[in-house]
Amino acid sequence: MIITIMLGSLLISTALPEAFDGQALLFASAYVGIHLFRSTILAVILRGHRLRNRPLRGIFWFSLSGTLWFGGVFVSGTPRLLLWTAALAMEYLGPVVRWPTPRIGRSPAWEWNTPGEHLAERYRQFVIIALGETVVITARTVRGGRRRPDHGQRRADHPAPDGGHPGAGSR
Question: What angle, 0 to 180 degrees and rounded to 10, lies between the N-to-C axes of helices 53-73 and 24-45?
């Protein structure tokens, strides 16, 4: 499950810069797919457990918001922005109203009592990932800016960018 979600996250991050242009379908599919996949797997795993209704609510709510995400794929410009804003608002509103779901009802407060230690551990993991990403990007930037082993001097068999010979533009 984690590998699949990581793949979906990679697809989202690849599509995000152009989500309002040519990558809308990839973005929406990966985003909605992650949430529905996770909720479905958890619903199967939690069969017979008292927390089973929690992922079932997720399936219901992400199916609703998913229609708006996919609706935005087939339009462009302002209509897409409005549909995707409505989908995002629905996802933020769900917890506020405790995810009312047909046949299941609202989520009881006890379902969401999470120990502080758990949240601290989760946020610590986010910080570790963010710091790791920062280190990788910094290293890549530094490495990309290094001079070549010949200290930046052009060799005779590699013409200068202006098409001339090395040193042609330095007169």
Answer: 170
Q: Could you tell me the two tokens for 169? A: 């533009």
- Other C-beta atoms within 10 Å of 138: how many? 10
Q: Which residues 6+ apart lie within 8 Å of 107 measured at CB? A: 53, 54, 57, 98, 99
Cut 0.90: pTM above it: no
Q: 104-109 long-range contacts, Cβ below 8 Å, gap at least 24?
A: 104/53, 104/56, 104/57, 104/60, 107/53, 107/54, 107/57
| Position 171, amino acid | R
Q: What is the pLDDT of residues 53-112, one digit of tens each?
A: 999 999 999 999 999 999 999 999 999 999 999 999 999 999 889 889 999 989 888 877
The whole-angstrom separation of Cα 75 and Cα 63 is: 19
| Residues in the chain, overall count | 171
